[in-house]
Design a protein that fits this description.
It is built from five helices and two strands. By secondary structure, the protein is an all-alpha fold. A two-stranded antiparallel ribbon has the order 1-2.
Amino acid sequence: MTVKLETLSPAELKTLIANAQSQMQAAHISHVKTVREKIERLLKSSSLTLTDVYPTRGGKGAKRSKSVVAPKYRNPADATQTWSGRGKRPLWFVQALKTRGSTIENLLIDGASKAAPAKAVKRNAKKVAKVAAKKAV
């Protein structure tokens, strides 16, 4: 069955698109179901489980352990809000830096140290090397 799209009205085109999308979704679900059944039959005939084949997927081995990082910064307005210094800056951190006289060092938790950015460390190392080279000459 061939449909001439040029002859259809916008409402008819919308209906056709909606019907095609629902048909595509049903076909996808059916395809997934048949593939899943084939996999289950194959695993059963081989006396294996999905965790035998994919040990990191599903089951007990699926949980990824995330390393916990100690908080480095604390919100001066709400002490329960902290940030480790990794990832996107939280809104309270950005707002606190916008206040007059506030610096990153002011937001540090006692005992936490502000590590120098990698670029600054490299730049300082180059300066030290230049000074040492000039003194050696």
